From TrEMBL:
<dbReference type="Pfam" id="PF00753">
    <property type="entry name" value="Lactamase_B"/>
</dbReference>
<dbReference type="InterPro" id="IPR050855">
    <property type="entry name" value="NDM-1-like"/>
</dbReference>
<protein>
    <submittedName>
        <fullName>Hydroxyacylglutathione hydrolase</fullName>
        <ecNumber>3.1.2.6</ecNumber>
    </submittedName>
</protein>
<feature type="domain" description="Metallo-beta-lactamase">
    <location>
        <begin position="28"/>
        <end position="219"/>
    </location>
</feature>
<dbReference type="GO" id="GO:0004416">
    <property type="term" value="F:hydroxyacylglutathione hydrolase activity"/>
</dbReference>
<keyword id="KW-0378">Hydrolase</keyword>
<dbReference type="InterPro" id="IPR036866">
    <property type="entry name" value="RibonucZ/Hydroxyglut_hydro"/>
</dbReference>
<dbReference type="InterPro" id="IPR001279">
    <property type="entry name" value="Metallo-B-lactamas"/>
</dbReference>
Length: 244
């Protein structure tokens, strides 16, 4: 199985595994690697079938499975979860509402994020550099994870580019085309309205408090540069055109 590996910033990488057989359309499923202070942290873990590709990609940056210290899941769907089983030394976290999605015995290896006082922010024990934000759409326990060190915002499938071609073949891109298309998509969803879109806008509004340099989704291109402005434009596209 083919994969792409790109460096985003010092100690921050994206691995995109190309999957041509699991889904109806060719797609990339992303996971992310963060290295600092003797820790190696994965954001999401891919499918079980991705393990050879993930291990090969990690080897390119000098990491073995035993050196992965933490796994943080954006949500509990199988294409972001199953690969976690090969990281036996890692501490693993997921939102409590998504624990039921995890297969046994893998579920027993995961702890739940701990809620903070405001109710929609969470924390992972032993990690202080992250804001974990409950976004409440796509799955019952979907979260976004903001890394204060690299200024990367990991949104999982809250917003992603599943099945879309990489702009100019670049995994990390500042593509204006992708930004415009994203805003048009949100505007269309806003016009349709509904409770799921209302949950999406609530989650998106929570992300406006951060100043990311990277918009890291669960599938496809990673956007870079002026990401706070991009998130504001998404939010405006949704609130200006919202119905119901």
């Amino acid at each position: 199985m083919n994969y792409l590996l790109s460096r985003m910033a010092d100690g921050a990488y994206v691995i995109a595994v190309e999957d041509t057989y699991t889904w109806d359309v060719p797609s990339y499923t992303n996971l992310y690697v963060l290295q600092r202070n003797g820790q190696t942290i994965l954001i999401d873990a891919g499918l079980k079938q991705y393990q050879p590709a993930i291990i090969a990609a990690l080897a390119e940056i000098g990491v073995t499975p035993a050196q992965v210290t933490h796994i943080l899941l954006t949500h509990g769907h199988h294409d972001h979860v199953e690969g976690a089983e090969c990281f036996g030394q890692a501490r693993k976290f997921v939102h409590a509402d998504d624990l039921p999605f995890l297969p046994a015995p893998l579920a027993s290896q995961f702890a739940a994020y701990a809620p903070l006082a405001d109710g929609f922010r969470l924390t992972a024990a032993g990690l202080s550099d992250f804001a974990i934000i409950f976004v409440n759409t796509h799955s019952p326990g979907s979260v976004a994870i903001y890394d204060h060190i690299t200024k990367a915002l990991f949104v999982g499938d809250f917003f992603c580019y599943f099945g879309e071609a990489l702009p100019a073949g670049e995994l990390v891109s500042a593509s204006d085309y992708i930004r415009r298309g994203s805003c048009q998509y949100v505007a269309g969803q806003a016009a349709a309205g509904g409770t799921e879109f209302a949950s999406f806008i609530t989650g998106l509004g929570r992300l406006r408090a951060y100043q990311p340099d990277f918009f890291c989704t669960g599938h496809g291109v990673v956007l870079r540069d002026d990401i706070q402005d991009f998130i504001n434009q998404l939010w405006l596209s949704g609130t200006r055109n919202r119905q119901g």
